Amino acid sequence: MAFLHYLTYVSQLFLRILLASQAIFIDRQPPPDQLPLFENPSVRVPRETPSPPPLPPDDKSSITLRGDENSRVRSAVEQWHVFIPGPNLERLVNQHVREILAYDLKIEPARVEHYAQIISQHAPRLFAILVEAKKGDNIIQILDEHIRDKDLPFIKIPSSEGLPLTLVTKRGAPINTFKTWEPQALENLEVKQHRALSPVFCRHEHYQLGVKDILPFIPNDAESNSWPKVAGGFGEVYPVRIHRDHHQFGTDDLPVAVKRMFYASNFTLEQKAYLDLGPSAHPYIIDLLFTYEYRNNLHLVFLWADGTLLEYWQMNPIPVITPAFFTWTIQQMTGIASGLAYLHEFKDPRTGEPRFGRHGDIKAQNILRFPSWLGPGILKIADLGLARVHGKDSRSNVDPKSVRCSPTYSPPDTLRGCRISRKFDIWSLGAMLLDWISYSLLGYRAIAEFSALRLRGSPSVFPEFRQDTFYTANGEMVNPHVVAWVDKLKRLPHCSQMMHDILDLIMKRMILIVPEMRSSARDITQHLEQILARAQEDQEYLAGPNPLPKLPPIPMRTSCAAELRTSQATRTREPWSTPKSRTWQV
């Protein structure tokens, strides 16, 4: 009878742990990694979730569950994948372990404290696993074999000729206690142990997870359930939430973006770029939280954003032009330029050595927007899948044939055979800023109009081969429609002096054919900081009326080569000519 009472008591204890810790029940549907290829998760039919049983009362006089109630609860639990939040489990085990050791296992009083400390400090999960498997009375024998939480998970060794099925520690050490167990009990323990072994994620760690491991992900709220997967050339991104007890990034459930990579090589390159930058490298660069491998898929995990800069433009097609909007715009432009400057030149957080990076794909789709007190939010540079980080000796020695990028915002450097350097990003940033100002002054439809004009400047016998670029087809001039568009923007009545200065910065220091003549990201940042400082002091400069008269656009045939400043003051060139460029880069 005492033993039966013990089994009832420990079963009830496990139920308390399961319920009081708000154990998360996750449907048996496959995880995001294993969804059918063409399934749309946003239209998945919701399943009916059974209600959990009520929490048992805390009164010790009524701690015994009826057998049929216990069976019903266990039967319901068996229908779900369950993970038990680790810290809650540990706290509850600590509260009850001494009582169980003394009154149910009849451990001598002098030894109760000894085993209680071992369980509390080194084996709370092991104890909970044994309780759920109805083998809690074996805890002392297993502890005496020096088995602890660090030896979990137990690994199944299948039976072979003359040898029964058994379990060993994760390092392969045998466990004598299991030799007396029935095979079914061993199978039960091997499966259920993973409910108490979900990982706790830490910054910049990599986790190698087994097939039977249970991720501590919980259902998203109603709004985030409608978020679709986003697929690209290298991977797909989907949202999940990490239980508050299974991450070290705050005290609440954490919404994150999980990026499942299609190829291991792309995973390695992107992971390396973030690790080279270090944790929380810059407030305008997204931080990689951690990575993991699960079911033969590699994953990168980031904080979940409200969307991209492009999506913000699409959701707000007609911006409300106010001083506050202009202030937010120049603040975020300055921040993005500052983040790019940091990526271009920083110190290795591990060695202190100078490092030089290049993003390689600056565009509005790769700028993420996070909620903030600052207007529509704070923007961060993301997607370092094409980024490269080099040491001093190799920073400017990239073969243009090896570069992959988005054609619209990329410079003509690859077409012209220039060695690829950090100046590649300056052109892309300038092109994106030009789209940004177009949106700020004319709305989202202006971006499509501007794109259509650039296509006209890309003559081709076959229209389908036209390129939406900011340069001409031969790569020797800035697209004339870009120059005309800038002139159009300058003559808008609500284009303030601040916007004029940003447009001049773009055309005179960023969108230049010859890479050497583009300013550095640090120089661009300094100019934007000066513009921002003046805008914060002078409301007329920030959002005042257009300082230019409304005149027809000036015919222009200049290329960005006309902006070149040579050291020979007397040397002149035709504005549409292109000088011979050197192949070394700054």
What does this structure look like?
The chain is an alpha+beta fold. The chain has three domains: 2-42 and 54-196, no CATH class; 206-303, Phosphorylase Kinase, domain 1 (2-Layer Sandwich); 317-362 and 396-419 and 434-563, no CATH class. It is 36% helix and 12% strand. The chain is elongated, with a radius of gyration of 31 Å. The protein starts with a helix and ends in a 43-residue tail after the last helix.
List the main descriptive attributes of the protein structure presented here.
disordered C terminus; alpha+beta; 3 domains; 3-stranded antiparallel β-sheet; Phosphorylase Kinase, domain 1; 7-stranded mixed β-sheet; 586 residues; 12% strand; 16 helices; 36% helix
